[in-house]
Amino acid sequence: xxxxxxxxxxxxxxxxxxxxxxxxxxxxxxxxxxxxxxxxxxxxxxxxxxxxxxxxxxxxxxxxxxxxxxxxxxxxxxxxxxxxxxxxxxxxxxxxxxxxxxxxxxxxxxxxxxxxxxxxxxxxxxxxxxxxxxxxxxxxxxxxxxxxxxxxxxxxxxxxxxxxxxxxxxxxxxxxxxxxxxxxxxxxxxxxxxxxxxxxxxxxxxxxxxxxxxxxxxxxxxxxxxxxxxxxxxxxxxxxxxxxxxxxxxxxxxxxxxxxxxxxxxxxxxxxxxxxxxxxxxxxxxxxxxxxxxxxxxxxxxxxxxxxxxxxxxxxxxxxxxxxxxxxxxxxxxxxxxxxxxxxxxx
Length: 347
Ligand code: CUA
Prior knowledge:
Layout: H1 2-9, H2 22-53, H3 69-98, E1 105-112, E2 115-119, E3 125-127, E4 129-133, E5 137-144, E6 149-153, E7 158-162, E8 168-173, E9 178-184, E10 197-202, H4 204-212, H5 220-230, H6 233-236, E11 255-257, E12 263-265, H7 268-276, H8 300-312, H9 335-338
Parallel strand pairs: 1-5, 4-10
Antiparallel strand pairs: 1-2, 2-3, 5-8, 6-7, 6-9, 9-10, 11-12
Helix pairs in contact: 2-3, 5-8
The chain binds dinuclear copper ion (CUA).
């Protein structure tokens, strides 16, 4: 059975399997397909045999049989157990797909009619192209600028809808250097079919070479710091003393007490919401309506830069950005930024 499954998996119908998770996803797929074929054969064979055997000509005086508990229990319990295997196996793969390893390298994806914009922690940007090193878990944090898109790399057996309004993530570990298609797999307008691109999986050394070529505008965190100053954030979010708005240093991934009594973790999703809809969650001790709403003012790509900056203000954050490209974790506050007038209410 396994051997025949392997032969089937080599059919050109299937894209190559180029990620760590591809093998187990294919195995489940073939298991379900094999069970479906088996059940179809049993049902149609039984149908044919009984139709022939109990035809009126051969069995003119058939008698009605009133049930058989044993038979009914068998054909209920056996399929139920087989379904439970599918459920358990599928749930296990789903859980793994939803849980990126802690040391995964982070890359940011923004879907927009009709392109995929990719941002790397070192500040490199690409459109419809993704470069990843082989053997390294990669976590994609994905946002949509407009409508629902869906990010899919068939060779890695990963796909996730990208919903406007919040972050979606997926992760994979590429196992084979090569050039693989990426797609948008959710109809998103008349040029949906053109929302495609390529993933290049490189050997670690080649990847380091490639990575050293980009980033003329500074790291993602540095780009975020620029935005932070340009948008006047620094007026109220003072770095080292209490301003009109919460201090952001050391905030990332820490619990935050809200005015309504809840406690939330200051993760990417929380920071994103607080930038685009500051009144959604008011921090305990602060007033609503102090911070302007940045929805429609800045793009999802800019939000990603700002989050990278805020993340860089928390030196204790376990490095989710890998490699040599990481910006210095502590960015010294600019004397001017902290002392900008107009911000600090007396506390
Ligand atoms: Cu984006 Cu289809």
